[in-house]
Known about the structure:
Elements: E1 5-6, E2 34-38, E3 49-52, E4 58-61, H1 63-71, H2 78-89, H3 95-106, E5 132-138, H4 140-147, H5 156-177, H6 180-188, H7 190-218, E6 225-230, E7 233-238, H8 248-276, H9 282-295, H10 303-312, H11 321-327, H12 343-391, H13 396-434, H14 439-460, H15 478-485, E8 502-504, E9 521-523, E10 556-562, E11 568-579, E12 583-584, E13 587-594, E14 600-612, E15 617-618, E16 621-628, E17 635-647, H16 653-671, H17 678-697, E18 784-788
Parallel strand pairs: 1-4, 10-13, 11-14, 12-15, 13-16, 14-17
Antiparallel strand pairs: 2-3, 3-4, 5-6, 6-7, 8-9, 17-18
Helix pairs in contact: 1-2, 2-3, 4-7, 5-8, 5-9, 6-7, 7-8, 7-9, 7-13, 8-9, 8-10, 12-13, 16-17
Amino acid sequence: MTVDTGGPSTSGGPPDPTPPAAPRWVPARAAGVQLLGDMEGSGYREPPALVRRGDGQVLQLTPLLYRVLSAADGTSTLEDIARRVGAETRRRVEAGDVRTLLMSQLLPLGLIRRLDGGEPEVKRSDPLLRMRFRVAVTDPERTRTLTAPFARLFTPFLVVPVLLAFAVVGWWVLFERGLAAATRQAFDRPALLLLVFVITVLSAAFHEFGHAAAATRAGATPGRMGAGLYLVWPAFYTDVTDSYRLGRWGRLRTDLGGLYFNAIVAVLIAAVWLLTRDDALLLVVASQLLLMVRQLAPFVRFDGYHVLADATGVPDLFQRIGPTLRGLLPWRWRSPESRELKPWARAVITVWVLLVVPLLVLTAVLLILAFPRIVGTALGELGEQVQLLGDAGGDAGAVAGHVLAMIAIAIPVAGMAYLLVRMARQTVARTWRRTQGRPVRRGVAAVVGATLVAALAWAWWPSPQVYRPVQAYEDGTVLSAVRALVPADEGTLTAGTAGQQVVVWPEDAQRPTADDPALALVLLPRAAGAGSGDAGSGPSWVFPFDRPTAPRDGSSQALAVNTTDGSVVYNVAFALVWVEDETVDTTNEAYAFASCSGCAAVAVGFQVVLVVGQADVVVPQNIAAAVNYNCIECVSYALAQQLVLTLNGPLSAGTLSELESIWAELGELGSNIAQVPLSELEARLSEFRTRIAAVISADPAAVPGGGSAPTPAPSRPAEAAPTEEPTDEESGQPLGGTTTDDQPAPEDGAPAGSDGEQPASDSPSEPSPPPTTAPTAESTPEPDSTPAG
């Protein structure tokens, strides 16, 4: 629904305010001017009178101006009008006073004819947030003919059950049925998706029928119906300015009539779904809900804006922004302009202004900043749609779907560009008017404008960085937009930003892509003191990245750090973890970092995860990394193996006994791991993993297919090198380095493993036996095994 309103203006004026040559001028109203009378339920202390011009725009007039215009009937002279207005207002009114009001106020508004009897030049208000490129589809007579039958739908006996049914349907779709199946079915059948789109567009037009029918039901006469561009999207409109004749409740019924018709569409579509069981139709119900939520937003000229305007009795809220902001100044609290509204209406409008002004300013700034990225994204998506269009072949539904997608991508971008151009034009025109005859102010405005243009040119200067498409990992928040304006510290890379960073990757390996990502070691500068740990807690931290964070409860971590020349450091973490939660996100980590000469760092992590019960999310992580930094003849070796199995209930006593026996052997391996050659270590752990999987799988509580033990790829130790040498924990292959012949022999004591609840320690200990109690449920996670060297 679109309603244009205006108000008395002091701008402009007659070509020549000199009294007419004819001594007896007979003023007459311009063609098409309608006197609507006082606005009922007004929020003004002195209710304004409403007048509608021939072009359909509604204007607010003071009571005095309205009386003068009402008396200008084409038969009364200036003296006659003065006598009539004076009698009505009980004031002394002269013919000269009437002439001044006619020439300086009513003529510029296009409400009376010119002195020569011709029609006045009508200049329609041109607010920024107004519908553009209107195309009328029906004239007022045809609108009334088409919409009058639907006025019967506002009978209370129909309204109440429809709204109740709509509430049930909305709840069922959003909270019971869901939209996953509907979305999948729609995209699997492009023709069905096209049908959903067509129904949604038609329902938007039916929304306007609701406004017209509601106005008719309340006693007003609807005008033209058509379509245009509002903000950046195509939209339908209905001229219901005649509803200002109505009282407050009649106007509110007209405002909400469109939403009521959206509810009718949702209920009808739900009924069709009951007959056809086509889930894709439920997307239409969802679209009606989204349309209704959007229409209720009171910040721009949607239905919610008109509901607020009619509820407060202030026809044009945007015209109150300036007076409201000025009225907040302490020295303007008692000015007549600030006291025009009733106290309660003034409070509501003030809250609205304080919300809408920052929101609109922020939206405009973000639009300017993000526009290059939006253009880049649109161009990329259009290219993809063109390619898909070529692959569609003779599938008419797919072709139509891709064409509609291209249109849907292009129209908002074109609308944004047009909106930005209009913002610039209106700002320049308004500044030029207000600085007329003031050279100093105009000079300052020119300097400010030139600065803004230069800043915009710098921000929009064509480059891949500026026009890169928006990525899925970017959050798109206000803070990220602000961060984009502030240059990041050199070498710093954060989510949502683009730049260069050092990543270790093998020369002969395929580079990761957005469709086929891979885990890699990214080197980030360490802040002063970061990752150094507490004094005396271990070797000093000399690496150019932060120390790995300590494992949380239920996870395990083996961390071997060696910075002592000629030494060997082992760290082992053996853990058996029982998980009874709905989320399985345990982590098994092995990190080996060396920065020394003739030294070695070995980290081994072995974890068995037993999932007991129903797990909705199963995302265990198995991570290994081996890094040499400023090393000479050094070796770093990291091996992480993880086994995830699913149980319906507690294990039997026999299975627990076998498991404890195997775990004792595993603990013995951990105690003597320094005696095991690195080339045999992975095979030894894989053997234990296979035995554990076999024992548990044979237990009645095990879920068939609820876990397996894949064979890991072989790992190798990292060769001494002056740069970092991480591993790819998905493939198990080292990212660089080979086994050296001068590997130092193990000399130091080797640490033993730890239980599944704590990280590995540097002192020998025996692993704890697993618990024997667990609830019953079912889940099917997959195991993971990740060696690295």
